[in-house]
Design a protein that fits this description.
The chain is α/β, with parallel strands linked by helices. The chain has 19 helices and 19 strands. The strands form four sheets. The protein has a five-stranded parallel sheet, with helices on both faces. The chain has a five-stranded mixed sheet with strand order 7-8-9-11-10, sandwiched between helices. Strand 16 (511-518) and strand 17 (525-529) form a beta hairpin.
């Protein structure tokens, strides 16, 4: 990957504000600048940011329709109606279903949960799911992380005497489904102050309101926050505002006292002896929950997340771990195949997007393949396969480009679509794929900015090794949890040298383990550069080079700093 390094020095006003704030907080001016860039300008704001409090959560009744949702749920409990908790088959959907089901099950037994089959039913509310609910004498369905576009399906359920409460966070259309209540902060008439909750987060707010209306202490909700943290990290929603509070306390719960199902996954991942971070969720925990819906059925993941017996949970976690191994194999082979197709496409270097279709591909992995293509080629990518008579697929985007709007511009060609700025799902008639490709490419070409078509490392600050003190690292850790809108700070240091002990490591000799010095201090800094062994020869010439990196804690030596190096280039090169 050929990265462009982008470092914008602060304006004199911002630098002055950063130094003033840093002095008041007794932190490095470099960290003061990071706060200013996050629009945190006062000591009070900084304290709220560093120590998010659960008292900072918004009143759930600020949601449009929340009073109606709680009233209908209370009525169902009073009438002893059968309730179904229904959700999407991805991590956000499975955690949301587990959260609502676990909480309500403590107070009510006539309740079930349902996850649609990715292959037989597809995304969202299905007729098959409604028919199953009707046969099971369900009177109320609480649908999570989907449902906002299920106008026909929910009308069908209404005819059968089944009411719906929708808890969703996807962008709605103008026409909303005929549900009893729709909890979605992205609604046109939404009165809720924070629009970026995950699907699980919306479910949590519903349970918060239900608890308030029934005199249940808020403390009863705290054990559910580990599920919120898993959904927030996995669904790549911003980790600022209310999400930061939920993620911060969710991580504390995950580390101190995780639910039995999550504890089993943590143990199977080999993460039990370390402090878990957002990255651990993204790369270890989330993919295993996702693998259940990709390879088999997401209902298995929910069963694990609500399991109360550790031994049973551990066996279930081993099973979804096997699914994850299968998923990785499919992912690798399909990505190689897709990469081969892209490389052979006519005029591919001139195209601003990628759209590929192969009816033999495994539907459960196409989203991952779209992500891989986006990473490799740095273009919005759509990967399609065939399901019955439709081309169905996933889209992924590059930083700053809204792929949902690009797909929406082709909506007359589509049977269904939904999603967010950076990820979306869609389906269309197979014969519409060429025209979709043409129009999607035309939209991207017209709307994408030049800086969005190349891999850019947005560097927060240029620093020297002498700046990386124990206190600096301690204060930097307070910026956790990291994620969208609060990305892990990226630093660069110029004119560094190999201390003489750097070496190539890894099973295939693909990484470099570095020991580095700069010319401003005697500090020897440890670093790891994944997948950059091609740079080793230059490093060993004893010439100076510049590095771009994040600052991590060495997982093998607690308290010791390690640089995770994102890019290396000879000094003086732009």
């Amino acid at each position: 990957m050929n990265y462009k390094w982008k470092l914008e020095p602060p304006t004199p006003e911002k630098q002055e504000a950063a130094e003033r704030l840093a002095k008041e907080l007794n932190i490095s001016p470099i960290l003061g600048r990071l706060l200013i860039e996050r629009n945190i300008t006062t000591v009070a704001d900084a304290k709220k940011f560093f120590r998010p409090s659960l008292t900072g959560l918004y009143d759930p009744f600020m949601f449009t329709d929340m009073d109606r949702a709680v009233e209908r749920l209370n009525k169902a409990l009073g009438r002893k109606e059968r309730i179904m908790v229904y959700g999407d088959y991805d991590v956000d959907g499975c955690t949301a279903v587990a959260l609502v089901y676990k909480f309500l099950q403590q107070y009510y037994s006539n309740i079930d949960y349902y996850i649609p089959d990715r292959y037989e039913e597809g995304y969202g509310v299905s007729v098959k799911g409604i028919d199953y609910a009707y046969e099971s004498e369900v009177k109320l369905i609480i649908v999570l992380d989907c449902g906002i576009k299920a106008v026909d399906e929910i009308a069908y359920a209404k005819e059968k005497g089944i009411d719906f409460i929708i808890c969703d966070h996807h962008v709605p259309d103008e026409i909303l489904p005929p549900a009893v209540a729709i909890l979605n902060a992205k609604r046109f008439n939404s009165t809720y102050p924070y629009p970026h909750l995950s699907g699980c987060g919306v479910g949590f707010k519903f349970m918060q309101a239900f608890a308030q209306s029934n005199g249940i202490e808020f403390s009863q909700l705290i054990p559910l926050l580990d599920l919120c943290a898993v959904s927030i990290a996995s669904d790549i929603v911003p980790i600022m505002g209310e999400n930061r509070i939920l993620a911060y306390h969710g991580l504390r719960q995950l580390n101190a006292n995780p639910s039995i199902g999550l504890k089993a996954i943590i143990d199977v991942c080999g993460l039990s002896e370390r402090e878990l971070t957002i990255s651990d969720i993204i790369f270890k925990i989330g993919p295993r929950i996702n693998a259940s819906g990709r390879i088999q059925n997401g209902k298995e993941a929910v069963a694990l997340l609500v399991e109360k017996d550790y031994q049973t949970a551990h066996e279930m976690a081993e099973q979804i771990n096997r699914y994850n191994d299968m998923r990785k194999g499919l992912d690798k082979s399909m990505t190689e195949e897709a990469n081969g197709i892209v490389e052979k496409l006519d005029k591919q270097s001139e195209q601003k997007s990628i759209v590929i279709y192969n009816e033999e591909w495994h539907k459960g992995v196409i989203g991952i393949v779209a992500s891989r293509l986006t990473e490799i080629y740095y273009r919005p990518s759509v990967v399609l396969t065939r399901t019955d008579n439709l081309a169905t697929g996933s889209a992924r985007s590059v930083s700053g480009f809204d792929v949902y709007k690009a797909i929406e511009s082709c909506r007359d060609l589509l049977e269904n679509f939904g999603g967010h700025t950076y990820a979306a799902g869609l389906s269309m008639k197979v014969e519409n794929v060429p025209e979709f490709h043409r129009r999607f490419e035309a939209y991207v070409e017209t709307h994408i900015l030049p800086e969005q078509t190349s891999a850019i490392l947005n560097i927060d600050a240029q620093i020297d090794f002498k700046d990386i003190t124990r206190k600096f690292h301690h204060d930097l850790k307070k910026f956790n949890p990291f994620g969208p809108d609060n990305t892990k700070p990226l630093f660069c240091t110029q004119h560094v040298y190999d201390y003489g002990t750097s070496k190539v490591v890894g099973r295939e000799q693909e990484h470099i383990k570095l020991e580095l010095v700069d010319n401003k201090s005697n500090n020897v800094m440890n670093g790891i550069a994944f997948g950059q062994s091609s740079q080793a020869r230059y490093i060993k010439t004893k010439r100076s080079f510049d590095i771009c990196y994040t600052i991590e804690e060495n997982t093998h030596k607690r308290g010791e700093v390690q640089l995770q190096i994102e890019d290396i280039r000879p000094s003086g090169k732009e």
